[in-house]
Design brief:
113 residues, 4-stranded antiparallel sheet, alpha+beta
């Protein structure tokens, strides 16, 4: 999927580690079922995430960051992610550390263009 390749390229160019790429469709097909293209990219940086986890250990459930890229029945590609505002509210993150996770929104916007 072109959008996945685009995100992989942006992550690599920015020096962000891609920890995993989960191909849900591929796994579903192995189980004998069908699913449209659905891929989850899990990425981040210990330098960005560690200060968040020190302040709010519960944020570790949402780190590393994730972007889901999926295709609907009309062939349209969608980009889904947990917004930084949602993560801040969920874990009580201080505003001064939000830049560390704000990148997810920037990345999602770039790949959706």
């Amino acid at each position: 999927m072109e959008t996945v390749e685009k995100l992989e390229g942006i992550l690599q160019a920015k020096g962000v580690t891609l920890f995993a790429l989960v191909d849900h469709r591929g796994e579903v097909e192995k189980a004998g079922m069908k699913l449209l293209s659905t891929k989850l990219l899990i990425f981040g940086s210990p330098n960005a995430g560690t200060p968040l986890m020190l302040v709010a250990p519960s944020v570790a459930i949402d780190l590393p960051l994730k972007i889901l890229i999926w295709e609907d029945i009309h062939g349209k590609v969608w980009v889904s992610y947990n917004s930084p505002a949602y993560l801040q509210a969920r874990h009580g993150l201080p505003p001064e550390l939000m830049q560390a996770i704000a990148v997810v929104e920037t990345l999602a916007t770039k790949v959706a263009e």
